[in-house]
Amino acid sequence: MTPEEAGLDTKEWEELKSALKREPNDLELRMVGVMWSEHCSYKSTRSLLASLPKDGPYVIAGEGENAGVVRLNHKLGLAFKVESHNHPSAISPYEGAATGVGGIIRDILAMGARPVASMDGLFFGSSDNSRNRRISSGVVRGIGGYGNAVGVPTVGGLTIYDQCYDENPLVNAFCAGILELDKACSSKTAKPGMQVLILGARTGRDGIAGAAFASTGLSGDDGANKPQIQIGDPFYEKLLIEACIELLKEGKIQAMQDMGAAGILSSTSEVAHKSGNGIDIHCEKIPLRETMEPWEIFLSESQERMLLVCLPEDIPYVEAVAKKWNLECALVGEMTDTGFYRVFNRGELLAELPVGILGGDSPVKNWPSSPPKRSASIKTSRSLNAEDVVTELLRVMQHPSMGDHSWIYKQYDSMVQLRTLLGPGNPVAALWIEGAGTVVFSMEANPWICAQDPFNGTALVTALSIRHLSVAGADPMGITNCLNFPSPEIPEQYWELEESVKGLATAARELKCPVVSGNVSLYNESPTSRIMPSPLIVSAGFIPEGINPLPPKPSSNDEGLEVFLV
Amino acid sequence: MKVAVITFPGSNCDQDVKLAISKSINAKVNMIWHTDSTLDKYDLVVLPGGFSYGDYLRPGAMSARSPVMRAVREHAHRGCLVLGICNGFQILTEAGLLKGTLLTNRSQRFICSPCWLKVETNQTPFTCLFNPAEPVQFPIAHGDGMFYLPKEELDDLESSGRVVFRYVPPPGVEPEGWENPNGSLNNIAGIINEKGNVLGMMPHPERATLKRLGDTYGTMLWRSIEHWLRGGI
Amino acid sequence: MLYTLSVLVRPKDGVLDTQGRAVMSTLREMGNHSVVDVSVGKFIRLTLESKDEESAVEAAKAMCRDLLCNEMIETFTIKVGDVSK
Amino acid sequence: MLYTLSVLVRPKDGVLDTQGRAVMSTLREMGNHSVVDVSVGKFIRLTLESKDEESAVEAAKAMCRDLLCNEMIETFTIKVGDVSK
Ligand SMILES: Nc1ncnc2c1ncn2[C@@H]1O[C@H](COP(=O)(O)OP(=O)(O)O)[C@@H](O)[C@H]1O
After folding, report:
1. What class of enzyme is it (chains C, D) (predicted)?
2. Parallel, antiparallel, or unpaired: how do β-strands D35-49 and C35-49 relate?
3. Which ipTM value was assigned to this complex?
4. Cα distance from B229 to chain A (closest Cα, Å)?
5. Rg for chain B (alpha carbons), in Å?
C-alpha cells in the first residue's frame, strides 16, 4: 500500500509522518487514508461550515454529534439530520437507497432517540431512458422496502428531475427521532475503563472502503465499483432499534455511535476522540461472517451494527437484552486514558495512532476559488407580456418536477406509529408528539436557482423552507442540510460551494433558525456531466401543545373567501 | 376486558394497536413476546401489523411457527377472540387458523393509502356495532394483500357468510372500471373463521381510531368487541 | 455427513404467478419478444448433517411441508446437490 | 423451437443473505438442528422461442444481466430444461 493508494497526497503524507514521527505501517496507513477522505474528514468544507450559525433557543446538541438535537419542552427533545447516499444509489439503486435510510435511522438512534419519521429528497435524471427508470424505481422501492419494514413512517420528501442527474442521481435521506432529554446519548460521555461493545450484525466484507469511494467521482464503469455495495436488512435493524431503546430506558448505555461510513474504525475513533480518551480494540473478538484481514474488518461497512460504550457491571444485562432480540453482541475493547487508538490481534499490537489523527485533526484542504464567467445568454431580467407569462407558467407547470409524485409516496408507509398529522402530499409534514405538541418539517431544494446564483439561491431555498413552517403556524427550531455538489477541485465549482454555504449561513442567521446538523456530498460528477449546485434544506418547527396548529386544508366550502398576497 | 397484543420480531404496529385500543375502550392491554407460551385469561388476542421476520420466505410464514402461536391456537380453539391485522392476517393464514393466503399485490408494489370498505356482516363479535349499509374508511399499507383461495373453498367462504370486509370504490366513484387496491379475489379485505371468533383483515383499524389523525371508523371495531364481550350482539 | 440439497419451489399454476407475469411483461417491454412464459419461484439451498442421503432428503421434505413451501399455492422438488453447480 | 431454461439466482458468496439467515434460525428453532446452512435465492423458469439451444442460453444470459439478476449481490446459473422436473 502506497500513500497514494491509501488516498493521501504528498502534503498529507508528510503531515502524517511528522505527526507520527515515523512511517505508519500498512494497517495504520489504510486507516488514516480512509479517515482523511473527504467523506469522513470534511477536509474541503470544514472551514466553510464553521461560519454557519449553530446556536439558538431550542438547540441542545449540534456540532460534532451524529445528529442535531432541539428541545421541545423540559422533558422531550427532537433529533434530526439529513444525509446523502448518492454514490451507492447510483451504483445499486435499491440497496443504495435502502442502506441510506438505514444509516440515517441509526444516526438518530445514536443520540438516544426513537426514530419517528423519515423523508427523502430525490434528484433523478430527466431523460426518458431505461437507466433512469431503473434508478428511480429502484431507489423508491429501496426507500419503501427499508422504511416500511423498519416501521418508521416516510412522511414527505421532494422529487426533482433534471438532465444533470442522469449520471449522478442524488438520494438524501432525512430522519427525526424523539428522545427523553435525561436519557440523551452522546459519544462525548465515554470514560476510561468503560467497555466497548458491538451490537447487531456480524461484520462481513461488504462496503469496504465505501467512504473513500464516496469521495471520488463516478468512474463511469459501474463494474469496477461493485464489491463496495452494502446490503441492508430492515428486519435486523428493527430488532437493533428496539434493543437499543430498551437498554437506553434502563440507563445501560453510557455512549453510543452508529457504524456508518468506515464502520468500526470511524465509530470507535470518533468515540475516543470526542470523549478525549484512548481506545483499545481487539480484532479477534469482533464477530465475523467470513475470514477477513484486520484492515477489512476495520473498514467494512456491514449494516445494522451499533457501537455501545457500557459500564463493566452492565455487560451481563446488555448481553441478555441482545439475546432476547436475537442480536450478536460482542465485547471488543475498552476505553483507555492513553490518548491512543490501538488495535490488537490476540495480544499483538497491530496499530497505534494518536486518537486525534483519526478522529478529527486531519489536514484541511483549501481549494482555489474563482467566480465563473457568466455566459452572456443568461439574462438577469427580461420583460414579459401577459401571453409570455402564461406560456412560461405552463412550461414550468409541465416540468416533471412539478408533477404528481404520488406514485412514489404511495409506496411508503406514511402512517405507522400513529403520529402523522400531515403526510406526503402536503406542503409540510406534521407529527403529533404526545406530551409536547406538533413538530413540522419542510424539505426544499431548487438547484436551478442555485445554479444561477448559489448565494441567493441557497438563501432563498432556506427562507422558503422556513416560510413553510411559519405558514403552518410553527416556530422554526433548526435546520439540517445536505450540500450536494460536484468536485470542489475546480475553482468555479468550489466558488459555488462557498457561496452556497454563505447563503445558507446568512439566511439561517437572519431568520434565527440555526443549522444543527448536516452532511456534505461532493464529487457528484461523471466524466461527461456534473450536477448543478444542489443544496437541500430541511427545517423543523414546533407548535406547542394547546396552540391550535396548522391552518385547515382548503376545501370546497372555502368558495367565496378572499385571497391575500402578503 | 383484557387484551394481549403479540410482538413478533419485526412487528411494527404493536404499540399502535395498544394505543388505539386504550384510547377507545376500557381495556387493559398487555404486550406478549413471541416466545411466550401461555395466553390465559385474555379476552382478545391481537396479532398486529408489521414485517415480522422481514417478510422473508413468505409474509407471516416464520411467525406462524413461533412458540406463542401454539397458545394462540389453543386460545382460538377455546372460542376466544383473535384478531389479525395486516401482517397478523398473513400470520393467521400461514398458521392455518384462517383460510386462504395473501399474495403480492397485483401492481407488485407496496401500497399505503386510505381505503373504503363495506362491512358485509354485523353478525360477528368484531363488527356487531357497524351498520352494513354504511361504508367505512380504514387505511391500508401492505405489499402482499391480494387474498387468494382456490375456487371451491372461496365459494364456500362466500356462501357461509365469512367474508367480513370487502373493498369498495370510494364514495362517488362508479364501480364500473374500478379495481380494488391489491387484486384480491372478490374484493376481499377481511374474513372470519367458521366458528366466528378469528378475524383477519388487511386494512388497519388502529390507523382510523385517533381523532386528530382523521377518520375514526376504527373505534367501532374496538367498541364492537367490548360490546360483544359484555354479552350484547 | 454433510449433504447439500436444492429445494425448488414453484408457484402452482400460471394464474397465481403475478410475479412471473410482471417479469415477463417487463422482459418483453425490454425487447425480449421471444419469451413466451416466465415463472418465478424460489431456489433454497440447504446444507445439513445426516447419516445418509435418503434421510437427508426426508428431512428436507419435512422442512418443505413445515415451512419452506405453502402447498396451497406452491409445489416443491428436492434435488440432491446444488443444482446451480 | 420452444426452449425451457432454468435460471438459478443465488446471493453471492460473502454477500449477506438476509433471508437465508432468518430461515435457518427458524428451521433450527423448529427443531431441525441438523441444518448448518441455508441460502435463499430465485428459481426462474423461462420458456422462449429460439432457433437453437445455444442462442436460447445466450438470450437468457442477456436477460439475467439486464433484469433477472443483480450482479452486484447475486450470481446466476442457467440450465437447459426445467431443473425441478
Ligand atoms: N420522494 C418523495 N417522498 C415522499 N414524498 C414526496 C416525495 N416527492 C414528493 N413528495 C410529496 O409530494 C408533495 C409534492 O411534492 P413537491 O412537488 O416536491 O412539493 P411542493 O410543490 O409542495 O414543493 C409533497 O407533499 C411531498 O412531501
Report:
1. ligase
2. antiparallel
3. 0.92
4. 27
5. 16
